[in-house]
Design goal:
about 0% helix, single chain, globular, mainly beta, about 240 residues
Length: about 240
């Protein structure tokens, strides 16, 4: 249903780029309340910040997920460059926050690696939809790996059962065609198969990010042509981040 065109010819690929800019006033991220393990986590109070809406100095919106909604792609539709991806995607509990705050993985090729770099224990949780949810105790210095069996339609919330301020988001997909925006609000998805596709745009504060009236439920249909496909600057208003 999502793939609107006919079969994709091998060796026809396009790169999709864009930049999300915030039209409102940029505010300084607020410190979060450190209510547990103050003697350890309190040392990182300047880093334990509300990351639910991070706006860069240039007005770019960080941590927006932009990804292909198609879940069933044959081998000819996955560019060979992706075969060399790292086998693990690392999420660290470091400074009593998740690093990175948002991330994604390709379930066929990548597993999740979680590490506790702090001197206190963490209770690593992932609330999944199709996959079993995770709730793993991580003592100091410990790590564990997990492989998701199914791709998910939306990012999964990461949290800590011990430290209530800890939050992050993890996207598990059946393909490698996803990106998250950086400090400048920019994203890039390389080597997409040409054709007409539907993409999902999602942000933790907004949920489905409807930056344009035709982006129903944060979904945008695009025709990918060989070479560069640039959406340019996409302006987003404060009202879009008023809460899911």
């Amino acid at each position: 249903m999502i793939l609107l065109s006919g079969s994709v010819q091998a060796a026809e690929w396009g790169t999709l780029t864009g930049q999300f800019l915030y039209t409102g006033k940029v505010s300084v991220p607020q410190k979060l309340e450190i209510s547990r393990d103050q003697e350890i986590c309190g040392k990182f109070s300047d880093q334990v910040l509300d990351q639910s809406l991070v706006i860069g100095k240039s007005g770019g919106v960080k941590n927006i997920f932009f990804y292909l909604r198609e879940s069933k792609l044959d081998e000819s539709q996955i560019h060979s460059d992706y075969q060399g991806v790292s086998p693990s995607v690392k999420i660290q509990n470091k400074g009593c926050i998740f690093r990175p705050h948002v991330s994604g993985l390709w379930v066929k090729k990548q597993q999740l690696l979680t590490e506790n770099e702090d001197l206190c224990a963490h209770g690593f949780q992932v609330k999944a939809y199709r996959n079993p949810s995770l709730n793993q105790l991580l003592p100091p210095g410990e790590s564990f790996t997990h492989r998701f069996e199914y791709g998910e339609k939306l990012p999964m919330r990461m949290s800590c059962s011990i430290h209530p301020w800890q939050e992050g988001w993890l996207l598990a997909l059946n393909h490698p065609y996803f990106s998250t925006t950086d400090d400048s609000g920019a994203f890039s998805i390389k080597n997409l198969p040409v054709g007409e596709w539907e993409f999902q745009v999602w942000h933790e504060k907004a949920g489905y990010l409807i930056a344009s009236p035709d982006w129903t439920r944060g979904r945008v249909k695009l025709k990918i042509v060989p070479g560069k496909n640039d959406l340019g600057v996409i302006k987003v208003t404060p009202s879009l981040f008023a809460g899911k």
